[in-house]
Amino acid sequence: MAGLARWCYQHRIVVVVLWVVGLLGLGAASQSVGTAYNDSFALPGTESTKALDLLQGAFPDAAGESDTIVWHTDSGTVKDAAVQQRIEGMLGQVADRSDIASVASPYTEQGAGQISQDGKTAYATVTFKGSVEDEVDLDAVDSLISTAEKARTDGLDVELGGNAIQQATQAPPGSSEVYGLIAAAVILLIAFGSLLAMAIPLITAVLALAAGTTSIILLSHVMTIGTIAPTVAALIGLGVGIDYALFVVTRHRNGLMAGMSVEESTVRALNTSGRAVVFAGITVCIALLGMLVLNLNFLTGVGVAASIVVFFSVLTAITLLPSLLGFFGMRVLSRRERRRLAAEGPHEAHARGFWARWAGIVERRPRMLAAIAIALIAVLSIPTLSLRLGASDQGNDPADSTTRKAYDLLADGFGPGFNGPLQLVAELKSPSDTAALNELVGQVRKDPGVAAVVAVPTQPGAEVGIVQVIPTSSPQSEETSDLIKRLRDDVVPGVEDGTTMQVHVGGMTAIFDDFADVLTSKLPLFLGVIIALGFLLLTVAFRSLLVPLTAAVMNVLAAAASFGVIVAVFQWGWGAEALGIGAAGPVEAFLPVMMLAILFGLSMDYQVFLVSRMHEEWVHTGDNRRAVTVGQASTGRVITAAATIMIFVFGAFIFEGQRVIAEFGIGLSSAVFIDAFILRTLLVPALMHWFGRANWWIPKWLDRWLPHLTVEPADEPVAPPRPEEKREPVAVG
């Protein structure tokens, strides 16, 4: 690392030019090919997937994306001549489109059930030629929306709902990154007191984000990457990019204040904190790529995309950053710091100030502070016990969106379950199976959770039968999930027995329910993999068993507490409406996996930076008390500053207007706060004081067997400073 840092410092113009050329090349390539994001995900072997496969095989034209056009009249009924004429003309234009397979109108004999009992609300089902993930052009969907909305008049409301409509009308990513950068700039300016020192982490983070996002665009052409992946990657990349540069710049500034030359301090900072950055980046990528063990394309794409941005964040920190430090010289210190250095001479940064005093308090009262921290975590974790995974429906879309308005119109006119119908798809293998299917319809009607059952007429000799089931509850409610389980476990098997018929419960609501079940079943494997790999890496780095064990436990505690916050806000609805993120509902099924991957990586960052400084002092002195105190005093300010930046960066995403992004924003910002201000500030140093020398114990046989990897090496001699640099510490201009 020292050699790379020195080369980048001495050839800083070359390094900057290479970065600029590389960014321009990536940008040009991504512009030329465009994006190919794909939100499809497969759940092989599940009931809902089997039902969908049967439908696609038997009715390929009817198996495409189905959305709805809903209209409501304030006076009269939807059958009034003026209303019917206007709507039928609009539906005719929609049906004539080349991308539409069919339009099921309520103004036909078969569509009588598509008009509400009071006659004021009706809907038409629009079926596309293909699925929204693969074949439906969202620009064409925009055109469809415009066609439908032209039918609106005073007293006649026309709205649209469905997956394709939601994706086409979803607000593009806002200015969250900009707000996060502004907040980061303010915090860095307060922390450093120097505009140039503030600018360096922002420059490296933005360039890393640019390189990462353009690479993700290119990668979307060779693997499945969902539309949410770039936003999640930006959320993570912006935070870690600023943090990594912040850690290195802080160590560099400390070196300058200790009397080193610019080159000597740069090399030392990269050879110590730079090593920790590389190690931390590796742990973040391992945690993110741990999602590959789930074998779900949707999550694999997110993990790979976020890992790419983290990789570029590390790359800028160890190549571009030392080059910028060479350009800026002593000006990374504020004028006041340079005057003090000239007047008082070199001094150690951790020898005075708040964090030195706080580290002393933790050293004197470790048991009491550890107990306080554990109590706080326990209280925050209580809501996690009621965590319910699922998928929020379009009733949680922004109140002014057409999908939310369509959802509300259908719920008011036909009941809440109408927005998430279930499908019973039956394989009919003998003539007697048709009678069995009719018997099943009767049994399903008796279930108290069913509002209506509609059997689609089948032709003689048909091999597939379809029954639509309307629940009494909304798609995202727990009652609907219970209904799906009853149908699969009790009702359907009770009729299937003794017949050749096989029935599968499907529909979008069932697909999301199965998605939650699949992820829940694979969660222990995922947790085991990332915890084991993190434990192994820290064991190799710090030659200790207690340090990695403590880190694993801290990660679990931080996760439990942050999920408690998510449950309270999104599932219980505490403050959700005030934040504009919809009503109470289940936590998105994929959120725990993605949150755990991100959180374990970020938590490991703080653990590495905190413990690596302690380990460095332990190697020098062999005194655990001094090692823990000096390590906390040295890193407390930078860790809390880095965490504050991350909290603002993540918090800015709450206002994106998308519920799932808001879940990430609140979950990650609360997790970082808990991790930095409770765990790393209170619990970890308190426990390490309590454990004493046992922190650094490892069996001799294991020490011999493990490879040697040093995160923060002992100080090494560096080349003598150049003559012009010897004068720089006294400059104050």
Automatic annotation (TrEMBL):
Keywords, in A-Z order: Cell membrane, Membrane, Transmembrane, Transmembrane helix
UniProt xrefs under InterPro entries: MMPL_dom, Mycobact_MmpL, SSD
Signal peptide boundaries: none
Main subcellular localisation: membrane
Boundaries of every SSD domain copy: 202-327
Residue ranges of the TM segments: 178-197, 202-222, 228-250, 276-298, 304-330, 368-387, 523-542, 549-570, 590-612, 633-655, 661-683
Top-level taxonomic group: Bacteria
Subcellular location: Cell membrane
Membrane topology designation: Multi-pass membrane protein
Gene Ontology cellular-component annotations: plasma membrane
Family listed: Belongs to the resistance-nodulation-cell division (RND) (TC 2.A.6) family. MmpL subfamily.
PANTHER family: MEMBRANE PROTEIN MJ1562-RELATED, MEMBRANE PROTEIN SCO6666-RELATED
Listed name of the protein: Putative RND superfamily drug exporter
Organism: Cryptosporangium arvum DSM 44712
